[in-house]
Structure to design on (690 residues):
């Protein structure tokens, strides 16, 4: 249950540690996580167990990126004093809850999940779907409920996963005969997914169209230089399109001076504004945004043990929370709890 | 790894706590478990998590029978000083290993498992197979490998589960680049499955054809009286069939005087031996076998807390063994181990 002395809503979010985070993560989630640190009791989960469900052939990638993502968190301003950063594989209660929930969902239901269907296709699994991958919605239900999170920020393509969680919650509550677990609400970000610098819908390190949070000034400048604009906007005097023009999409996402951006858009549409001018403004904005993040990140990277200690501390704190939920769910279902104080502390 | 100071092979066996144990369990496994306590390092797992995979609608049944099965173990002569009795749900490393192994097996492979196919049919799941049920071979692989068991007694219908375990073991070892986990060998009992007293292939409480280990003298006598013999053996003077005759099957299983049994069989085949005589002998044998078990069981049942303390102690001991394996497997695969001493002790 929510900490009696803490009436704030519980929010659970996190990332699969498969690569350092980039501007897309910043716009889509990191920025709002920093903003929610006081109004919410926030847990950030480094989802290394989930990352393995489609990276079992390269566990080293998952291991290395735990530190990278933790560095990104701290660099953007996540404060371990206000947000609990924890590691999924360090929370055995999550695995126990996952196995429990797998009894409350059928194979057919997992296979029907639209998110899973899309992701299976995207990963080219064909008939060879790892069982862990098919089961990960139950693992996600375990994560969400173990923290008793009621607010779960997800992309709009992931809303079916929250529905799946709530189906399990209702099933468990019905069996327990009381509302032992809360229903979760998906928090869909207002700003849509940030496109890659090439204009593709998704920014991703593997597509080579991402700007990592650790990008150097030169890398930022080069990314802006290569950025997709309006291919038909050949001369500055031509009218140009703003829609689908990545430079303007990024200005919308990162330039706080909305009025100036609106004016630039109008001029660009009319004709008379060259790409170089707009790109120069975006470069200034991104350099200003990323410089302090990069500097904090570099300083923190010099002492990785200190960063891992933050994760270790957060994981220990999360262990009591998640173990307490597991014990309560087991008791409520009439299951045996051999040793209620068994959780590592 | 096997305890350095203990060179004996590790044997893992156990039961799903869904009902008190009966004569079928005694003949098929309990007797040999008692005999193996010195030659092997033996772990007995009360598989409550696995029992839930097809009893999620009645968790109370699983909870209640943990004590019943533990009582049966102690009553037949399992010595907690020589055999570790432990509870599956009290060993979080098993759940963690299960989730890990689910990444190394495909959904299609689980669906092809002959044991699972048969069991899905037997349970009438149809299309509504609980995901936890489909996944239980991976959980079984976790159990076996967590204890580094090399000897696993199973019925012959369960040999495919050991094959599935070894497939996962080979996959993990290949990925780790070394033999981090041992291959397990199925130990198929010499004596076949004991039939029910009605002659049906399986003795089961739910079929009403079982003799529980706690049966009273009257219940034993009544079971023998009702026992299926040769339906064509109408008069003592008629020749009778020994094959499929449950009374003789039970004498083979429980009467230590092989010569006397062989002579009875010969007389029965020739004609001139009535069912009543053979049943009387079997009754004597079963009364002698079950009397001390029943008495020990009744005495132990008077102090359930003491019995649960045995399970609690065994589970604590098993926690260090299984947590160590989890940490070693994770390290060998190149996964992050945040806090190697994290296991509850």
């Amino acid at each position: 249950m929510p900490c009696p002395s803490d009436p704030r809503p519980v929010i659970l979010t996190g990332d699969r540690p498969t690569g350092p985070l980039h501007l897309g993560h910043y716009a889509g989630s990191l920025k709002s996580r920093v903003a929610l640190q006081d109004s919410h009791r926030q847990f950030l989960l480094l989802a290394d167990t989930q990352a393995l469900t489609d990276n079992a052939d390269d566990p080293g990638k998952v291991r290395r990126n735990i530190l990278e993502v933790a560095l990104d968190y701290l660099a953007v301003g996540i404060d371990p004093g206000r947000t609990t950063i924890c590691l999924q594989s360090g929370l055995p209660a999550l695995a126990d809850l996952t196995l429990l929930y797998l009894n409350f969902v059928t194979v057919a239901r997992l296979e029907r999940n639209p998110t899973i269907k899309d992701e299976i296709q995207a990963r080219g699994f064909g008939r060879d779907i790892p069982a862990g991958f098919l089961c990960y919605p139950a693992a996600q239900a375990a994560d969400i409920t173990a923290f008793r999170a009621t607010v779960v920020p997800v992309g709009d393509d992931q809303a079916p996963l929250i529905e799946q969680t709530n189906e399990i919650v209702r099933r468990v509550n019905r069996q327990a005969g009381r509302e032992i677990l809360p229903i979760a609400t998906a928090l869909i970000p207002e700003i849509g997914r940030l496109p890659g610098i090439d204009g593709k819908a998704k920014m991703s390190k593997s597509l080579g169209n991402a700007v990592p949070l650790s990008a150097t000034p030169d890398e930022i400048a080069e990314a802006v230089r290569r950025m997709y604009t309006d291919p038909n906007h050949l001369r500055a005097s031509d009218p140009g399109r703003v829609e689908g023009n990545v430079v303007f999409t990024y200005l919308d996402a990162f330039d706080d001076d909305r009025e100036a951006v609106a004016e630039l858009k109008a001029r660009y549409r009319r004709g008379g504004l060259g790409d170089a001018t707009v790109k120069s403004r975006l470069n200034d904005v991104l350099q200003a945004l990323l410089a302090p993040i990069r500097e904090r990140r570099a300083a923190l990277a010099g002492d990785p043990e200190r960063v891992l200690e933050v994760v270790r501390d957060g994981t220990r704190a999360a262990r009591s929370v998640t173990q307490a939920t597991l014990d309560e769910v087991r008791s409520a279902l009439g299951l045996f709890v051999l040793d209620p104080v068994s959780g590592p502390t």
